[in-house]
Input
Amino acid sequence: MPKKFGVFISYDHQDAKYIEPIIQLISAMRKDLVFQDKLSLQAGKKWEPQLLKALDEAKIIYCLLV
Output
C-alpha cells in the first residue's frame, strides 16, 4: 500500500537547518507522515507525479520562506 502523506513541506535546501526542528515538532504532534522530498521521493521514478500526489493528499501544506 502506498504511503499517504498528511503534511507536505516545501523549502529551499539552503534553509534545511530551519526546517529540521519544525519537521521534528510536527512529527511529534501528529500521526501523519510528513512529505519531505529528500526522504519521500522514490529514486528512479518520475518526481512530478509523486509530488502532485503528495500535495493532493496533504491535510497541511507548510511552505518555509526565509
In short: Strands lie at 5-10, 33-35, 60-63. The helical segments are 16-29, 37-40, 47-57. The longest strand covers residues 5-10. The first helix runs from residue 16 to 29.
